[in-house]
Amino acid sequence: MQTVSPGQLSRRGLLAGAGALVLALSLKPQGALAADPPKFGADGMPHGWRDDPTLFVAIAPDGTVTVTCTRAEMGQGVRTSVAFVIADELEADWAKVKVTQAHGDEERFGNQDTDGSRSLRHFFMPLRRAGAAARTMLVAAAAKQWGVPASEVTAENHALVHAKTGRRMAFGDVAQAAAAMPVPDRSTVTLKDPSAFRYIGKGRVGLIDNVGITTGKAQYGLDTRVEGMLYAVVARPPVFGGKVKSFDEAAALKVPGVVKVVTIDPPAPPYEFMPTGGVAVIARNTWAAIKGREALKPTFEDGPNAAYDSDAYRATLEQAVRKPGKVVRQEGDVDAAMKKAVKRLEAEYYIPHLVQAPMEPPAATVRIAKDGTIEAWGCVQSPQAARDRIAKRLGVDPKTITVNVTLLGGGFGRKSKPDYFVEAALCSKAVDGAPVKMTWTREDDLHHGYYHTVSVERLEAGLDDKGMPIAWLHRSAAPTIGSTFVAGANEQIPIELGMGLVNVPFAIPNMRMENPPADAHVRIGWFRSVSNIPRAFAVQSFINELAHMAGRDPKDYLLDVIGPARIIDPVKIGDAWNYGEDPSRYPFDTGRLRNVIEAVAKGAGWGRKVEKGRGLGIAAHYSFVTYTAAVAEVEVGPKGEVTVQRVDIAIDSGQQVNPERVRSQLEGAVVMGMGLALTAQITFKNGRAVQDNYDTYELTRINEAPKIINVHLVQGGSWDKPLGGVGEPGVPPVAPAIANAIFAATGRRIRQLPMRDKLSA
What we know:
The chain is α+β, with helices and mostly antiparallel strands. It folds into three domains: 53-215, Aldehyde Oxidoreductase, domain 4, CATH 3.30.365; 230-304 and 362-439, Aldehyde oxidase/xanthine dehydrogenase, molybdopterin binding domain (Aldehyde Oxidoreductase, domain 4); 310-355 and 450-746, Aldehyde Oxidoreductase, domain 4 (2-Layer Sandwich). The strands form eight sheets. Strands 9-10-7-17-14-15-16 form a seven-stranded mixed beta sheet. α12 crosses α13. The protein is globular. 55% of the residues are buried.
């Protein structure tokens, strides 16, 4: 297979292929549009950002404030956080605030892709400005009505106040006049002093959708109902790259309720966000569609990936990391330092394919009207991507398409890839535009997803006479996300390299990181925290192994390897991507990494005595410009059964806008990270995913979750400092903390995920 280097991925190709996704933040490729000035953060995302208050704020005559949220809600609480940022700057009474969801239209709303832990990181300041601008318009309207200078009027808790006369006016009384006022220039808008925040950073605001969610009234993608709606499922090729060979259409049409059978042709590779092909069965209810699909008895040509076997491929990756690969970072002379080392250690770590497996599988409904306009509904993280892909496949103007975003029953990156929307659109077209809901079953989701890459991480270190590393070699072999967008891509792109490989912040004088090629045999997509998962597991486990070899306390050793607090320019250590952020605003601050390690160690009581059969493990990681560390307390039973008794996790994401949601995100990350550590994996035989449902793709059950999860919020800087991400950074340190705790409890070192069965063997 052809080798495609990151420099060969054109910027135009990445943006066109990836749409609104994390790939759009990749490095500017070598020699491509070199004259373009660099853009960072929200400026570097497709369609950028908006802060026009008329897009985000509406006030009714009764005073109800409606905030428009442009990001997808999938349990992370973004609708709440967006609303109270605006409400705080507006001086609104939270009891009078509600939220509406924006449809997909990035030309109007700015970037809407809910991926990469960027929602508040990119939109906190624009949202503040939007709220402050709306407040300014209310003040101006009230001042005009009273005939006084605007400087004498203030907004206070949903009312306008003229201090000199004591006059008050409710927001609703002046809302219509305020809407007619000119939108102030952002340079003239005065933001609140943080000391005056009522909601931001206070942690006393519950989910704005909580009642609807807990009473079952909230609308998710699977809840969509449209008059005259039909229902569809698809029989897809079980092997990536396969094609339909035959099917029994007549048998399917005999199933009561089935109305049509439609062939879906795949595009030429790479598939990107398009369907992989198959046969759709359209019926009057989902059950009939499923039974009709069974009656099809389809056969397939399995294509080039028919022999893919994940066990055999592991051996391929292991061979790849045992010989030199493309050097992606180099400092000093590793080979010479290795020869001088007093002790050496080599280790290989294996991380299997994973899949997002959200509780609500992908679901989308599409209707094509007689006038050619198209309306879609569904659980989607990137509505603009859905809009664009429907338009591309049907050959229509994207402006004729409206994508309505429902609540998402989980996403984790899967629902930013809208192939299921395209399937629904093709089915609607096949039945003369009638609305069709495309439903993926749990089995569909596990068998035909965009998988987190499998990887082998090989680490070698040479230690001096004090047990400290003087040489460090890390080779990482994994199929790349780039293969989903560029045929034949088999080297990791800068985004993946910058997730714990090239940007390791250790104070080691001689370091070399290499990236051997690895071919993809399945669709590779992003998953919560992406390549940080294998890198954190490997690096933090290896550091723990080195600490044991040196006879040192693991926490103290980790801090010593990180070295003294210092500011590192990411570009100078080979990470020019830096999560798409300006390296001058987001340098790597090892002091902050040290702080979360110290905070979690203190919170967990590091060094305390634990019962026999138990152990404590520690790990830390930097991802999405945020610093996290975890301590796990694990008990291993006589038959190798693992119980995670307690996890402490610390985070420094800068100032925390919504502490309650930060805690919830970290608690969820711990539970998810525990599942990845102990039970979750996708394996392949004969090109087919083996796991079918939650009985074989095992996530953490309620009874298995840690009895205690303590979240330690570490404040990083003032409100004028940029924010970090929150949704993803909590996952990476959990698995290595558990692995290190298992070693502390048993003396057994586990170097592959999932770990549960390795102890009972």
